[in-house]
Design goal:
By secondary structure, this protein is α+β, with helices and mostly antiparallel strands. The chain has helices at about 1-25, 80-90, 120-125, 145-150, 165-170; strands spanning about 35, 40-45, 45-50, 55, 60, 70, 75, 95-105, 110-115, 120, 130-135, 180. A hairpin with a 3-residue loop joins strand 9 (about 110-115) and strand 10. It holds the Pfam family SNase.
């Protein structure tokens, strides 16, 4: 009987060890993503791919690639295309690094990213008027940048637009083809 008791105790300890290891892995900070040698592709105004990993900028919601906006005179223009071009320009300066904060429902690393001479890329996109503060569900931390862009009529604020979350809800997801960062 005694050998079985030891086996049972060892099995219980092994299971506890595995549980503790799994908890430690879940709590470990996600690995930093850097573009050093990896191909970088811009998907839309707030998403990009570094190597095989897809990244979404935390705290903002950019107009979708296929989303139109309206100028004050009523003319429609492709603001989603401009948002993607702006993100590509910001990361083209090099030094792209992203700190994953979470993983979203699509498996993307929701991250705070920076690039050479830019600092917080999400803040720059909101300040230039190509994204709104927040992710469509929660308020973001870029309200000052958004207020300044709106007051100066930069980017999407120069005319009218549908909030990106509302536009996505009204239009089936049609992902644009990623373009290499220039």
């Amino acid at each position: 009987m005694r050998p079985r008791r030891w086996l049972r105790q060892i099995a219980v300890l092994a299971v506890l060890f595995l549980i503790l290891f799994a908890i430690a892995e879940l709590r470990a900070p996600p690995e930093r993503l850097a573009a050093e040698g990896a191909a970088v592709q811009v998907i839309d105004g707030d998403s990009l791919r570094i190597g095989e990993r897809t990244v979404r900028l935390q705290g903002i919601d950019a107009v979708e690639f296929h989303q139109p906006c309206r100028m004050p005179d009523g003319k429609e223009w492709r603001c989603g295309v401009e948002a993607r071009k702006t993100l590509a320009t910001l990361i083209a300066k090099g030094g792209l690094a992203c700190e994953p904060q979470a993983t979203d429902n699509f498996g993307r690393a929701v991250s705070v990213c920076s690039a050479a001479g830019v600092g917080d890329i999400a803040a720059a996109l909101v300040a230039q008027g190509w994204a709104v503060s927040g992710d469509g569900e929660r308020e973001g931390g870029y309200t000052a940048e958004q207020q300044a862009a709106r007051a100066a009529k930069r980017g999407i604020w120069r005319g009218s637009f549908v909030r990106p979350a509302e536009w996505r809800a009204a239009h089936p997801r049609s992902a644009p083809s990623p373009v290499p960062a220039t």
